[in-house]
Specification:
The protein has helices at 133-150, 156-162, 213-216, 219-228, 261-274, 319-333, 350-353, 367-379, 395-399, 419-428, 440-452; strands spanning 18-19, 39-40, 53-56, 59-60, 66-70, 73-77, 85-93, 97-107, 178-186, 189-195, 202-204, 237-242, 249-254, 278-282, 289-294, 298-302, 305-309, 336-342, 357-364, 385-389, 408-411, 432-437, 455-463, 473-480. By secondary structure, it is of the alpha+beta class. It has a 7-stranded mixed beta sheet. It has a 7-stranded mixed beta sheet with strand order 20-19-18-21-22-24-23, with helices on both faces. It is flat, with a radius of gyration of 24 Å.
């Protein structure tokens, strides 16, 4: 069973340890260097420094943290593994649980490995590089099973039976095709990278094994560009995105003021030096995006289709897992007359469904994604695919939906899940559902509604969308239970 701090006191389940850069030198498989490890104290740490205590890590908790017990409390310690014998210091102490920091590794557990990245622990992007891949995959399966039992009300033996092994469809490195990099201009140099854990400090990346090499290759040129700009202190973020093609790379620079003529010349030189396909400026929300360079489109493949997208569109960060996920969904879907795709985006599922169903409708609240879906349908000559703008969190809109008219419904909601949709599905009773989720707890809540309303959870598959991190996504299929009629 995977436990999280939210199982004990939910207000504190997001409390994490802030780590200094020395951690990146000291969380490998050997004990050398652990005496130098220290963490920055959380704001709610005990008023008096706590003594170190000897502990043995028993299992993994959510997010890749180690879990053990001390003085009647559950203790969570980041960057530890089952079997680790450690000295730790408690930095947050509550009635039923505590959060600690690793001080010294006395004996490494059998699942500990050397991290891939020099920044591991100082950078907040990854949480599980110190675990071997099998342990990561097994843990993520449990991250799906546990909330299904705790929140979803599914018996543990049933959850174990219906949750498959974690899908591993991509390498553990070089998989990430989009990233939002934070930027700070500090002491006459540009820091470009991800935030440190539980902090707004930027870890200046000299290495990033999980990024697609096409994206990592832009970081040094980006530093050089920032130094050439007059607005260098007004440029907090750069979004990097790539398509399937070797030359399909785009950059969005978030700027807090309009670049002057000299800045624009520097931006054009950056685009020429790097050979990127697109360069955009964004002020405020996505509606404020402006293309400076737009040489080539970005594309990604699903089934035998090539979908065109813009860098501001939502696409999955792991193309290989996305291809596997869509192919599995099409296998589950089979062929039929009418399919509905909720939260459809630019048509990641809608357009492949149009190859297997006579009529397909995709509903999405983000207007540019709806427009992109229509463009792709026209380009692919999928005349049976329609896209409409719809707010699927609006109770009045959802209550009026005729969901019983569809042979299959695919639902791919954002992180918070789809409470209203699940309730409406129970009322309407379509026979088959395919559900995609990026948060197991939200999925478990929606699954409880569906199961309580007469659906059977047939199968759930954890998706290793973000290797080396504590994040897991999943896909599942439900069928409506047919009751005997007297």
């Amino acid at each position: 069973m995977v436990l999280g701090a939210h199982d004990f006191e939910s207000d504190d389940h997001q409390q994490k340890i802030q780590c200094t850069e020395s951690l990146s030198l000291s969380i490998g498989s050997s004990a050398a260097g652990y005496d130098t490890f220290r963490s920055m104290k959380p704001t709610n740490s005990p008023s008096q420094p706590q003594p170190t205590i000897p502990l043995t890590i028993e299992r993994l908790a959510d997010g890749g943290r180690g879990l053990t017990f001390h003085d009647g409390r559950v203790v969570f310690i980041p960057y530890t593994t089952p079997g680790d014998v450690i000295d730790a210091r408690l930095v947050t102490i509550k009635k039923r649980h505590a959060i600690g920091e690793l001080v010294t590794l006395r004996e490494p557990g059998p699942h500990r490995v050397e991290p891939l990245c020099r920044h591991y622990g100082a950078c907040g992007g990854c949480q599980m590089q110190h675990l071997d891949e099998t342990t990561q995959h097994d843990a993520k399966r449990q991250y799906v099973i546990d909330p299904l039992t705790r929140i979803g009300g599914v018996a543990r033996d049933q959850a174990e039976a219906c949750v498959e092994q974690t899908c591993i469809a991509s390498p553990a490195t070089g998989y990430r095709c989009r990233a939002s990099l934070k930027i700070r201009w500090v002491r006459d140099r540009a820091l470009v990278g991800f935030f440190a854990p539980n902090s707004h400090r930027v870890t200046d990346l000299k290495q990033c094994p999980v990024l697609d090499p096409k994206l990592f290759a832009l970081i040094d040129p980006l530093r050089r560009l920032i130094g050439e700009l007059s607005l260098r202190e007004r440029l907090p973020q750069a979004d990097l995105t790539c398509g399937d093609g070797a030359d399909e790379v785009a950059v969005i620079l978030h700027v807090l003021r309009t670049p002057n003529g000299r800045d624009r010349a520097a931006l054009e030189r950056f685009a020429e030096r790097t050979g990127i396909a697109q360069l955009w400026l964004q002020t405020g929300r996505k509606e404020g995006m402006q293309a400076l360079i737009n040489h080539r489109p970005l594309r990604y493949g699903v089934t035998d289709l090539q979908l065109t997208f813009q860098p501001g569109d939502f696409t999955q960060a792991n193309p290989a897992v996305n291809r596997w996920m869509v192919a599995k969904a099409m296998e589950w879907a089979g062929r039929g007359k009418r399919a509905l795709d909720l939260f459809c985006g630019l048509g990641n599922f809608t357009l492949p469904l149009a190859q297997q169903f006579e009529q397909v409708l995709g509903l999405e609240s983000y207007a540019p994604a709806v427009a992109r879906g229509k463009e792709n349908a026209r380009a692919l000559n999928l005349t049976n695919a329609r896209f409409e703008e719809a707010d699927l969190f609006n109770a009045q809109r959802v209550s009026g939906m005729k969901l019983d008219e569809w042979d299959l419904i695919v639902c791919d909601p954002p992180r918070d899940g789809a409470t209203l949709i699940a309730q409406r599905l129970v009322e309407a009773g379509p026979e088959r559902l395919i559900w995609i989720a990026c948060d197991p707890a939200a999925f478990a809540r929606d699954a409880r509604t569906l199961i309580g309303g007469g659906y059977t959870l047939e199968e759930a598959i954890p998706l290793e969308m973000f290797p080396q991190t504590g994040h897991v996504e999943l896909m599942a299929r439900f069928t409506k239970c047919l009751r005997d009629v007297d």
